[in-house]
Amino acid sequence: MRAAIIGTGYVGLPTGTGFAELGNDVVCIDKLTEKIDMLNDGKITIFEEGLEELYQKNRRAGRLKFSSDIAQIEGADVVIIAVGTPTHPVTKEADLSCLFEAAEELAVYLKKYTVVALKSTVPVCTGAEVERIISKKNPSADFDLVSIPEFLREGFAVYDFFNPDRIVIGTDSARAIAVLNRLYAPFSPKTPILITTRNSAELIKYASNAFLAMKILYINEISNFCEKCGAKIEEVAKGMGLDSRIGSKFLKPGPGYGGSCFPKDTLALTKMAKRYNVSLHLTDTAIEKNEERKLDMAHRIADIMGAQSATAAILGLTYKSGTDDVRQSPAIDICKELLRLGISLRVYDPKGMQNAEEQLKDQVYYAADPYDAAANADALVILTEWDEFAELDFNRIRDLMQSAKIVDFRNILNSRQVEGFLYHRLGCGVHPCSLVNS
Ligand code: UGA
Q1: Nearest residue (CA) to ligand 1, atom 8
Q2: Quick check: 202 pLDDT over 90?
Q3: Ligand 1 center from residue 152 Cα (angstroms)
Q4: What dihedral do alpha carbons 234, 238, 240, 241 form, nearest 10°?
Q5: How far is the C-alpha of 84 from the C-alpha of 10, rounded, in Å?
Q6: Where are the domains of the chain?
Q7: What is the DSSP letter of 74?
Q8: Is pTM beyond 0.90 here?
Q9: 2-196, what's its fold?
Q10: More confident site: 435 or 63
Q11: What's the gap in Å between 391 CA and the centre of ligand 1?
């Protein structure tokens, strides 16, 4: 089949590459000409595990092309829109300007029946609006506007593309369903394909992300309680997760959730609901508590370090491992708060240094490796769960540091590694039960 993908970001590029790998003819379109030039030159623009290999292979095979000319959508069976919908700085709702612009521009090139599919995360009823925009611009366009929300995780986008838990197709058009069934045929029968109304499909995406965000918030709260009552969060999470109704995923405590999706989508969901006079109290609370969590983490570090003029070695700046993305990263917010508290920072991240520099500017020392970060530091703070941080030579680290303290907000180290350090991890209670009973 012929597919056109509009937007070559963290969603568009893995999606386009994935469909090319499945044998389709794909053209990826982006307004940013420098990005397209790079992609045409064989230089990948994002870091995503396993993506580069597939991109090179399909590009060479001629199944994966790149263009900044939207006219290239002409003749496609499916046009997938995967442009960004960031938080609007004023309204805090999803900013749909790029999406509406793309709809307006592509309309005139719909010259045969085409499925136009929204993969961008968009508020309920956006599909209807995009449909109106296209029809107004090109009244003779023969198309169906469908919602196909994406559930790819950054860092695992390639794996998730080929191994989705579900595929959601939001439309009531039998013609569109037939086309998309062909596109998604390689996933069948392993993956359930759920056909819903367009509005339901749009909401499934937000409701899923907000639910996962709340699950993280919940385990973080329970983790706080573990610290006070003498329980261990890993044991509690394991015991909870073995209940298939709860599930074991997304029960890891951490410094708060981040990234380009959960913070943006939880905000957009509550704003959207308010337009319908519906209050989503749990989501509102999650947003508020996640912000508080990041500040709480910074203050914990400061308390553990004691002296105000201390230096912290920060390991991990991205919002999770496996990505170079620092957008809404708890690590960045924690760094900013520590700087505000007068603590000097020596930071290191295996992939996110360049992006972090845009946020932290010249306020921190950018270390060459974890050992450089640890040199003369008063505490070593782990904020992202990179595997390499668990493989460090901690004897060497201890010798390099001014004061042997480790704060591990991802719980990646074991008791052997932290011997000789004052070690703080999340959700590990030391208070004796007698305290509670007295
Ligand atoms: C999230 C969803 O998981 C995807 O299904 C969705 O497609 C994507 O958003 C999106 O809307 O595009 P992503 O933002 O890549 O994916 O990141 P996650 O792996 O979900 O992690 C989000 C945050 O939660 C990270 O900061 C991570 O460290 C944190 N987290 C996750 C925890 O603190 N504990 C956990 O147990 C799991």
Answers
A1: 153
A2: yes
A3: 9
A4: 130
A5: 9
A6: 2-196, 262-433
A7: T
A8: yes
A9: Rossmann fold (3.40.50)
A10: 63
A11: 24
